[in-house]
Amino acid sequence: MSTASDQPAPTATRRTVATYSTYREAERAVDYLSDEGFPVEHVAIVGTGLRLVEQVAGRVTTGRAAGTGALQGVLIGLLFALFFGIFFTGPGFGWLLLYAVIAGALFGALFGAISQASQGGRRDFASATTTQADKYEIHVDVAVADEARRLLDSLPPR
Length: 158
What we know:
By secondary structure, the protein is an alpha+beta fold. Helix content is about 50%, strand content about 25%. It has 2 domains: about 5-50 and about 135-155; about 55-130, no CATH class.
C-alpha cells in the first residue's frame, strides 16, 4: 500500500529540463541521472504530440485464422497434457500427449475459422498498434530541477 509521501509530486510543480526526439534518448538521460545519484523519483518522461499508429501485418483469411487457431490449440493441448502428465505418469502418457495435440489442433482450427467467418468481412487483416510521440520531455520537480539540468548538461554525447 502506498502513502501520499510515496507518490510523485503533481506535474504542476514540475519543470521541463530537457527534450528529446526519441524515447530511447529520454530513457538514457534518466538512466544517467540515476547513475549520478539523482533522486529519479522526482522525474517523469512525458511524451507529447501523441498519435496512434496501427501497422498492418497482412491479410487474414478464414484459412489463415484456422491455421493460427490450430497452432494455438496445439500449444494449449500440449500444456494440458504436460500438466496432467505430472499426476498421471505411465505407459499411456504418449497417447495422452498425442490426443491432446490433435484435439487441440482440431478445436483451435474450428474456433479460429468460426471466429473469422463470423466477422462478415470486417477486419480481414492483422495489425499491431502502438502509440508514438513527436518528442519526449524530461519533467523534474521544481525543487531539484536546477540540479537535474546541471547533470544533463554534462551527459556525454552518444
